[in-house]
Amino acid sequence: MKKKVLAVTLMGTLLLSSFVVRAEEEKETISLLSWYSEEQLGEFIDAFEEEYPNIAVDLQYVPPVQQYVDKFSVLVASGQMTDMFYTAAENKQEIIERKLAEDLSDMEIFSRINADTAGTYGSEGEIYAYSPDAWIGGVFYNTALFEEAGIEAAPTTWDEFIDACTKLQDIGVIPYLDDADNVHNQSVTGSVPVHGDQSGAGRGR
Questions:
Q1: Is the peptide bond before 65 cis (omega within 30 degrees of 0)?
Q2: What sections of the chain are H helices per DSSP?
Q3: Are 26 and 114 found together in one domain?
Q4: What is the pLDDT averaged over residues 55-63?
Q5: What's the pLDDT at 202?
Q6: Strands 84-88 and 28-34: what pairing?
Q7: Which is nearest to 198 in space by CA: 64, 84, 88, 37?
Q8: Are residues 128 and 151 in the same domain?
Q9: What's the domain range around 59?
Q10: Most-buried pick from 118, 128, 148, 170 (CB within 10 A)?
Q11: Torsion over CA: 51, 55, 56, 57 (sign)
Q12: Average pLDDT, stretch 75-101?
């Protein structure tokens, strides 16, 4: 009986050893849908693959944001979604409501992040993405130009905003100008909109 138990144990050990060796030899590929290009993410991917030599990252780049969201929808509909992906403000709600990503709330990092911040990409205690970036949205305005145009206070409604723009135009000032090719570094004469990056990295189900 002892010999039988020993034989089974040795066989199990050999099988386990064989599995470990095979796992070390094989390389797993993880796909990542991203609006950051190889040029932007290449250094990070190289460092990751160096630390985890058994894993290769297949980066699938799509320009932001609408093209990315469209590609995301196509991959979801066709059942070909990547293993990991970025979550945009434009499709965040869809990902949460349809639970298109795994719940990451058991990851240790969330114990060190403010609960309100951690829950930005989650619902009912579950977290579907993690955003390493903070962002701010708002409008700065030139008080001197406002005073010159006779605008007594910053507009708080759409009608007040249009009225303020009209008064700025009356004194020869372009009230609001967007740089469509570079929305993260917008410049205007008279007012400056400030936009940030609202994105989170998610892991597919």
A1: yes
A2: 2-25, 38-51, 66-77, 92-98, 115-118, 143-149, 158-170
A3: yes
A4: 96
A5: 52
A6: parallel
A7: 88
A8: no
A9: 2-133
A10: 128
A11: negative
A12: 91
**Which residues contact residue 64 at a Cβ distance below 8 angstroms, ignoring those fewer than 6 apart?**
35, 88
Question: How many CA atoms within 13 Å lie on the side-chain side of 19?
Answer: 6
- Report yes or no: 173 and 190 within 8 Å, Cβ to Cβ: yes
Longest dimension (CA), the chain: 100
The pair of structure tokens assigned to 162 is: 């249009």
Identify how many contiguous H helices and E strands the chain contains and give both numbers.
7, 9
Residue 146 resides in a domain: yes
User: In Å, how far from its chain's centre is CA 130?
Assistant: 7
Pair of tokens at residue 56: 């290769």
What is the Rg, in whole angstroms, of the alpha carbon atoms belonging to the chain?
A: 26
* 23 class by beta-carbon count within 10 Å (0-12 exposed, 13-18 middle, 19+ buried): exposed
* Cβ–Cβ under 8 Å, residues 33 and 62: yes
Asked if 102 and 129 touch (Cβ cutoff 8 Å), the reply is no
- The first and second tokens of residue 115, run together, are 């609960």
Q: Which pLDDT score, from 0 to 100, does residue 201 have?
A: 54
Tallying the residues shown for the chain, one arrives at 205
Of 2-11, 53-62, 99-108, 114-123, the poorest mean pLDDT is in 2-11
- Residue 93 half-sphere exposure toward CB, CA atoms < 13 A: 1
Residues 168 and 112 in one domain: no
Please give the structure tokens belonging to residue 131: 């955003």
| Residue 181 reports pLDDT greater than 80 | no
Q: Which domain-ending residue is among 133, 149, 164?
A: 133
Per-residue pLDDT at 131 = 75
